[in-house]
Amino acid sequence: MSTIKIIDLESNSFKTVSIRKEDVQKRWFLVDASDQNLGRMCSKVAKILRGKHKPSFTPHVDCGDNVIIINASKINLTGNKWSDKKYISYTGYPGGQRVKTAQQLHDKNPSIIVEKAVKGMLPKNKLGAAIFKNLRVYNDELHKQESQSPEPINLNNI
User: Fold this and answer.
1) Is the pLDDT of residue 10 over 70?
2) Cβ distance 39 to 47 under 8 Å?
3) How far is CA 87 from its chain centroid?
4) Counting beta carbons within 10 angstroms of the beta carbon of residue 43, is it exposed (0 to 12), middle (13 to 18) or buried (19 or more)?
5) How far apart are CA 66 and CA 131, in angstroms?
6) Residue 94 lies in a domain
7) Whole-prediction pTM
């Protein structure tokens, strides 16, 4: 005769663990934007900044990592987006709406395009503002975070 083992479901119950902001372990990543498509790169960077790539992701805590993006001036936009994509700002005065194309914004400061794209993919609240502070964007290969020893990351593997 064989013995039948009865499994007690109560003892195998899983509990959802919410991480606290004191328990978060942040890492530094280095992303090279050379010849990367803007939207695809920024959505993966936003995922890293938010912390969704970690098994300990908690929606109401800044549990993401710090990201440094270099070579923002070499970003790629597909199709006619350099001339057709519009960035609209408003001065606050009547008739103060300003419209710039992606090419005009790139000529002024290429990192603004990347920052705007990533910021649009983050939550629109205080948590999103805190998460956005973990992003640093540089137009060329030089950055000021050598002391944090950032790990180069390949976004194609995420």
Assistant:
1) no
2) no
3) 20
4) middle
5) 9
6) no
7) 0.87
Nearest to 135 by CA among 33, 45, 55: 45
Q: Residue 53's closest CA among 157, 135, 151?
A: 157
Which range of residues forms the domain containing residue 145? Answer: 25-76+108-157
β-strand 97-101 against 86-90: which pairing, if any?
antiparallel
Give the gyration radius of the chain's Cα atoms: 21
Amino acid at position 84, single letter = D
The total domain count for the chain is: 1
Is residue 51 domain-resident? yes
Q: Give the per-residue pLDDT at 156.
A: 86
Taking the C-alpha atoms of residue 24 and residue 86, their distance in angstroms, rounded to an integer, is 38
pLDDT score at 12: 63
Q: Is residue 96 part of a domain?
A: no
Contact 48, 7 (CB under 8 A): no
Beta strands in the chain (DSSP E): 28-32, 66-70, 86-90, 97-101, 135-137, 151-152
> How far is 114 from 141, CA to CA, in rounded Å?
15
Each residue of 78-122: pLDDT tens digit?
999 999 999 999 999 999 999 999 999 999 999 999 999 999 999
